[in-house]
Amino acid sequence: MRTLRLVLGDQLHPRLATLTDLDPGTDTVLMAEVVEEATYVRHHKQKLVLAFAAMRHFAAELRARGVAVDYVALEDAGNAGSFTGEIARAIARHRPDRVVVTEPGEWRVEAMMRDWEERFGVTVEIRDDTRFLCPRPVFARWAEGREALRMETFYRAMRRRTGFLMDGREPVGGRWNFDHDNRRRLPAGQAVPERLRFPPDAVTREVMDLVARRFPDHFGDLDGFAWPVTRAGALRALKHFLDDCLPEFGDYQDAMRAGTPFLYHGLIAPALNLGLLDAEEVCRAAEERWRDGAAPLNAVEGFIRQILGWREYVRGLYWALMPDYPETNALGATRDLPWFYWSGETAMACLAECVRDTRIHAHAHHIQRLMVLGNFALLAGLAPAQVEEWFLVVYADAYEWVELPNVHGMALWADGGLLGSKPYAASGAYIDRMSDYCRGCAYDVKAKAGAAACPFNYLYWNFLIENEERLRGNPRLAMPYRTLDRMAPARRDAIVSDATRFLDSLTASEGHPGGERAVDARAPDLFLVDPAG
């Protein structure tokens, strides 16, 4: 039987289900760089380089094992520009008896795949993605009949299912979650580890030239590209994190510091989401560090929770709720995305810092994403679809299955509480407590009102006022609403006035980096950034 085996650009693992029964004598592996996937959103330049370079290295590794690889590069003559077009061409070339694929990460791609068998008259076998620890049917059974699909409940079930950090049926250390121990501000002057970088090799440099030439208007810088593009490199990056960063990761995982974008974070999510690493080996390696006494339990549990808990949970939620999930908008948010999400041109130091990190590295850690970039989007009432597209565009680890639930549900509460029991709304006090961003900001984080006040302060209360009918009954918001009830009418009026003035000053980006250049009205000349990114 001749088999055509399609490997997608985020499935680059040697034990991928597509490849498990491969016969080098009869089978061909198809890999294709297609413009449709590079442009359905205008991905960060570094994300495109990472994907194409990793694909080319993976194809070379397969060939070194004696596997026949039919590799279609982006600029090859005849490239159809889509997965469906390339499957059609490959079927014509190889005349296979069947096509084997592993389920993709995005709903729209699986919809394509389910059309191929009838369209091309050849058997198409779609296999479960065994790189994940919770198969989609297992999540569906867990979710069935539940009123609330909470991550903490799922996480405990997954700990029992996998045995990670378990002592029989109970969690090691007597607690499931050490999150309360993981909220320390980074002390001033504390040195953080120098992060391992991966200078581009010849293949990667060739891809960098390709991306710069073909996608010049996409967001992001290329000069600082330093991501691993092979499994060997990804394993080195994992070891570096475990050895040099994991022991302090727990304490400072929520901290932020200007000019220090990586702190103690893993930086392995791009490799994990590409398939260069898999979830089980990453969790196993971290658990071994705790059992060997090389890392404390609060750090290891916090790290494993990000993968075994959040990563597996949002994937299951995504597939359980698609395709209707992104259509919800529980808070009726409609404001256009401001231009400074692309340019960093804002007098708010925290937002400028996070956008700058994002542009330079295609990376920002989870608190920067949730409590700065996402928090502002929530408080300002930005349209969910525009915010979600931005997050999907700008990060090297962003794929719809992981990005959409995190942004739609957790950051924006657009699903009305399906994912999170309350909106993650916070004033400037949270950012001041967990970072040094406020120290050099043009706004005063201590001021509550007026043009000089930190916009997060009055936007927070304005958010509660605007959404009072929807949110007042939420028990987790009872305290702030009691505070709001004690405010004098004049104070409430000032909050609404400040918020209206500020929000009216924002200029939309028209949804992508090609939008009109604009700044927030308070300090138009503080940040001079090339609008092209």
Automatic annotation (TrEMBL):
SUPFAM superfamilies: Cryptochrome/photolyase FAD-binding domain. InterPro entries: Crypto/Photolyase_FAD-like_sf, PhrB-like, Rossmann-like_a/b/a_fold, UV-DNA_repair_photolyase. Keywords: Lyase. GO terms for molecular function: lyase activity. Gene3D superfamilies: 1.25.40.80, Deoxyribodipyrimidine photolyase-related, DNA Cyclobutane Dipyrimidine Photolyase, subunit A, domain 3, HUPs. PANTHER family: SLR1343 PROTEIN. This is Deoxyribodipyrimidine photolyase. It comes from Methylobacterium tarhaniae. The lineage of its organism: Bacteria, Pseudomonadati, Pseudomonadota, Alphaproteobacteria, Hyphomicrobiales.
